[in-house]
C-alpha cells in the first residue's frame, strides 16, 4: 500500500473529531457507523417527496436542519449533503459560491446541531445545466468533461464548503487528480484538519436512476462512462483507483454502489488495511427494497438489515444509507 507523504497524509484527521472516530470504529454494527444522505433545495418551507424514493425528500434549509437534528438524536454518525440550486449554468457556479445551497444547508445544520458531523458531496452534476460532473469541452465533434479544468473548480468548491462548516469533504466526480487538488486547496487555506472521503471506486451504475430524480442531475446528453468506472471492470482497476487516491491524500475511501460490488469492498478492505472503507448503499438499492416491500413480497426490516450487514461483513466500516435514521431507531429500541 502506497501512501502520500506528510503533509498530505495526516492520520490525525481521522481523530480530530469525535464523530469521525465513531464513524470508522470497527466495533460491530452501530448508528455511529451510518451516514444519512440529505438533499438541500433552495427556498423555504419546502418538503418535496422524491417520486422514485418513497419517504425521501428534497428539503429547504429550514427543514433540513430538523431532519439532521433527528438523526443526531438517534446517534447517526453524520449526514452528507447534496444540493439542488435555484439556477444552473455550464460550470456549476452555485457549487463554488459561499451563498450556494449546500453552503447554506451546512451553516443551518451547524447552527442547529453543532455536534453533528456534516459531510459535503463535492461534484458538479447537480449544479450544471448539462448534468455532467465538470467543465465540458468539445474535441473532434465530441463533448466530454475536461478533467484538468475541472480540478481547479473542485478545489474552490471544497474550500467554500469548509468555510461553511463542513467537517469532511467527499469528492465524487471521479476526476483524475481530484484528491490531490482538493487536499492542496484545503491545506493552502488553513483547513489541514478536514478529512477527505473520496468516492475512489465509483461505477457508472444503473442503480443511480432514482438519485438523478432526487438531485435533478440527469445528463442532458451522453453518459458518465468516460469518467466513472465501467460496471464490468475488473477488481484490479478499482484497486488502482483507490491506490491513487490514497497516494494523493485521501483519508477514507468509498466504493459506490455497494450491494452489487461487495467483492470490490472486500478487496479494497483487504488490500488497504488501515484505510477506512465506506460503502454507499445507493438510491436504486433503496428503491428496489421499498417497491418490493410495498407489494408485500419481502420482510422489509429483515431485508434492510441483511443488506447492511452484508456490506459491513465485506469490510465497510462506514455505510451511507437512506435508511440510516430508521436503522438507528431500530438499534436504539433493541
Uncertain stretches: none
Number of helices: 12
CATH fold-level label: TIM Barrel
Q: How much strand content do the residues show?
A: 15-25%
**Taking all residues together, what is the mean pLDDT?**
90
- Tally of strands: 12
What is the approximate shape? globular
Your description of this structure?
- It is built from 12 helices and 12 strands.
- Strands 1, 2, 3, 4, 5, 8, 9, 10, 11 and 12 form a 10-stranded mixed sheet that branches. Strands 6-7 form a two-stranded antiparallel sheet.
- With 334 residues, the chain is an alpha/beta fold.
- It has one domain: TIM Barrel (Alpha-Beta Barrel), CATH 3.20.20.70.
- Helix 4 packs parallel to helix 5, helix 5 crosses helix 6 and helix 8 crosses helix 9.
- The model has no long low-confidence stretch (mean pLDDT 90).
- Strand 2 and strand 3 form a beta hairpin.
Amino acid at each position: 500500500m502506497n501512501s502520500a507523504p506528510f503533509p498530505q497524509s495526516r492520520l490525525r484527521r481521522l481523530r480530530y473529531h469525535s464523530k469521525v472516530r465513531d464513524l470508522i470504529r470497527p466495533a460491530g454494527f452501530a448508528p455511529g457507523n451510518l451516514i444519512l444522505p440529505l438533499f438541500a433545495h433552495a427556498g423555504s418551507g419546502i418538503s418535496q417527496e422524491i417520486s422514485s424514493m418513497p419517504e425521501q425528500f428534497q428539503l429547504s434549509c429550514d427543514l433540513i436542519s430538523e431532519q439532521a437534528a433527528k438523526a443526531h438524536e438517534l446517534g447517526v454518525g453524520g449526514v452528507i449533503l447534496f444540493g439542488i440550486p435555484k439556477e444552473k449554468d455550464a460550470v456549476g457556479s452555485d457549487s463554488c459560491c459561499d451563498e450556494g445551497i449546500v453552503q447554506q444547508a451546512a451553516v443551518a445544520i451547524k447552527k442547529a446541531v453543532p455536534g453533528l458531523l456534516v459531510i459535503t458531496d463535492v461534484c458538479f452534476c447537480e449544479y450544471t445545466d448539462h448534468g455532467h460532473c465538470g467543465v465540458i469541452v468539445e474535441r473532434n465533434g465530441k463533448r466530454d468533461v475536461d478533467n484538468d479544468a475541472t480540478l481547479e473548480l473542485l478545489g474552490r468548491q471544497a474550500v467554500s464548503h469548509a468555510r461553511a462548516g463542513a467537517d469532511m469533504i467527499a469528492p465524487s466526480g471521479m476526476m483524475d487528480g481530484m484528491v490531490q487538488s482538493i487536499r492542496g486547496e484545503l491545506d493552502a487555506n488553513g483547513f489541514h484538519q478536514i478529512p477527505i472521503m473520496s468516492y475512489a471506486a465509483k461505477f457508472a451504475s444503473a442503480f443511480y436512476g432514482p438519485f438523478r430524480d432526487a438531485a435533478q442531475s440527469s445528463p442532458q446528453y451522453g453518459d458518465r462512462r468516460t469518467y466513472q468506472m465501467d460496471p464490468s471492470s475488473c477488481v484490479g482497476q478499482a484497486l488502482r483507483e483507490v491506490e491513487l487516491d490514497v497516494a494523493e491524500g485521501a483519508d477514507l475511501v468509498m466504493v459506490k454502489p455497494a450491494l452489487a460490488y461487495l467483492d470490490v469492498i472486500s478487496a479494497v478492505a483487504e488490500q488497504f488495511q488501515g484505510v477506512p472503507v465506506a460503502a454507499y448503499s445507493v438510491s436504486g438499492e433503496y428503491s428496489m427494497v421499498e417497491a418490493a416491500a410495498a407489494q408485500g413480497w419481502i420482510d422489509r426490516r429483515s431485508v434492510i438489515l441483511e443488506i447492511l450487514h452484508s456490506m459491513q461483513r465485506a469490510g465497510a466500516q462506514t455505510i451511507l444509507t437512506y435508511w440510516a435514521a430508521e436503522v438507528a431507531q431500530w438499534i436504539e429500541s433493541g
